[in-house]
Structures are given as C-alpha cells and as structure tokens.
Amino acid sequence: MAQRSLLARALWFVAVGWWATPAVVNAAWFLCATVVGAPLGIKLINLVPTVLTLKEPRSLVDPEAATGQRSLAVRAVYFVFVGWWLGWLWANVAAFLAVTVVGLPLAIPMFDRLPYVTSLYRFDGHSE
User: Fold this and answer.
1) Which sign, positive or negative, has the C-alpha torsion 50, 52, 54, 58?
2) What is the DSSP string of 1-43?
3) Contact 38, 75 (CB under 8 A)
4) Which residues have a Cβ under 8 Å from the Cβ of 13 and sit 6 or more positions away?
5) How deeply is 35 buried, as exposed, middle or buried, from its count of CB atoms within 10 A (0-12, 13-18, 19+)?
6) Which pLDDT belongs to residue 46?
7) Angstrom distance (rounded) from CA 21 to CA 7
8) Using CA atoms, how far apart are residues 32 and 19, in angstroms rounded to an integer?
9) What's residue 78's pLDDT?
10) At what angle are helices 104-112 and 84-98 packed, to 10 degrees?
11) Per residue of the chain (128 residues), what is the pLDDT tens digit?
12) In 3D, which of 13, 2, 7 has the Cα closest to residue 107?
C-alpha cells in the first residue's frame, strides 16, 4: 500500500489528527491498564502515527521492515516495568508538540517511534 499524498495527510492532520491523537493515546493507555483491553490498547498504540497524519506503517508498505523483533517475553517484561509509563509520557509530550507549529517536526518522529518506546516493537523499520 502506498503512502497518501502530502496534501491529504496535511488536511487530515488539520481536520482530525491534532485532536484525535491525544484521545487515542490516552484511550490506548486506559485499555493497557486492563488485562482484557491490553491487546486492543497495543494495537491503538501502533496506529498512533496513522491517526496523526494518515501515515501508513512501513511494515505495510514494505513487509521486510518489521523483521528482527525482540521476543514477545522480553517485550512484555519491558512493557510492564518501563514501557507503560515511558510510552505514556512520550506520547503525551509528542501530542503537545504536535499542536505547536515549531514542535510538529519533532512530534511526528516521536509518534513514529512510540511502538518501540512502549514495547520495543519495531513498527516501521527503525533499528533502535
């Protein structure tokens, strides 16, 4: 699947992305606080870059981009002890930056890295 045009993504951000992203971020963390809601919460975290700017995950554009993941056990332990609070903080700082003109260029890569910060999941091919 190809990326949407820059114009379409910019219009989405102005009309929806700037206000929907903080709502999705906080709903995801609320769901992650429950055992039953955690799987849906993680899916929402992974969709934050798409909610912000309609950016297609690189793993959908390039299936080779999501290879080389850490084991699920390592990622689960990281999430329980570090990821849940660091990811929430990271996402809310990025959401604040996203609504400022000068902060938006920093917010977008922060949201791109949110799945990694939260659960060590290499969502878009970053090699942290």
Assistant:
1) negative
2) -PPPPHHHHHHHIIIIIHHHHHHHHHHHHHHHTSTTTHHHHHH
3) no
4) 52, 53, 54
5) exposed
6) 83
7) 19
8) 21
9) 93
10) 150
11) 677 888 999 899 999 998 999 999 899 989 988 889 988 988 888 888 899 889 876 554 444 555 678 888 898 899 889 988 999 999 999 989 988 879 989 998 998 888 889 888 876 444 44
12) 13
Cα dihedral 106, 123, 85, 21, rounded to 10, equals 60
DSSP state of 60: H
DSSP string, 90-116: HHHHHHHHHTSTTTHHHHHHHHHTHHH
Q: For residue 7, which phi and psi values (nearest 5 degrees)?
A: -65, -45
Given this model, what pLDDT does residue 84 score? Answer: 86
Q: Do 44 and 26 touch, CB atoms closer than 8 A?
A: no
- The single-letter code of the amino acid at 26 is N
- The amino acid occupying position 22 is P
Question: Around Cβ 39, how many Cβ atoms within 10 Å?
Answer: 11
Give the position of tokens 């920093």.
106
